[in-house]
Amino acid sequence: MKFLMLMIPRVYQPGTPPEERLGEDWVPKGEELEKMKKMGEFNEALGKAAKMIDIDGLTPLSSGARVSFEGGTPNVTDGPFIESKEVIGGYWLFEIGSREEALVWARRVPAEPGDVVELRPIFEFPEGTFD
Predict the structure, then answer these.
(1) How far apart are CA 109 and CA 56, in angstroms?
(2) Do residues 84 and 14 make contact, with C-beta atoms less than 8 angstroms apart?
(3) What DSSP assignment string belongs to 30-99?
(4) Beta bridge partners of 4
């Protein structure tokens, strides 16, 4: 089964005090660098237990853009998006035996207090569905 596991870090959320948010110029140093190393170790371990399809971190919301299709016409809005309630900071796309196994790995993410990890199965349509 394929899963998308989303990291929703507290430091990207709209309710986080500005002095605690990560900016586009953020470079991990000291304690933050150690946290990044732990995440790298977790990623390596997950990569050995599952088939890793893709993994990456995302820049802050201020550098993004949103394309909405209200009325059928694409409308581009540059970030940050005031109406955002949760901001995704990174993702893992992997294949593993079951939802239970994926949840084991979701629980092992070296997250910080206030972070959230969301696990979503990927639709897998039977072969020939769109023939």
Answers:
(1) 14
(2) yes
(3) HHHHHHHHHHHHHHHHHHHHSEEEEEEE---GGG-EEEE-GGGS-EEEESP-TT-S----EEEEEE-S-H
(4) 93, 120
One digit per residue, pLDDT tens: the chain, 131 residues? 999 999 999 988 888 888 888 877 888 889 889 999 999 999 999 999 999 999 999 988 888 898 999 999 999 988 877 677 888 999 999 999 999 999 999 999 999 999 999 999 999 899 999 99
Contacts of 84 (CB under 8 A, 6+ apart): 14, 61
Is the separation of the CB atoms in 38 and 110 below 8 Å? yes
Task: Give 82's Cβ-side CA count (13 Å radius).
Answer: 0
What's the pTM? 0.85
Query: 3-class DSSP state for residue 120?
Result: strand
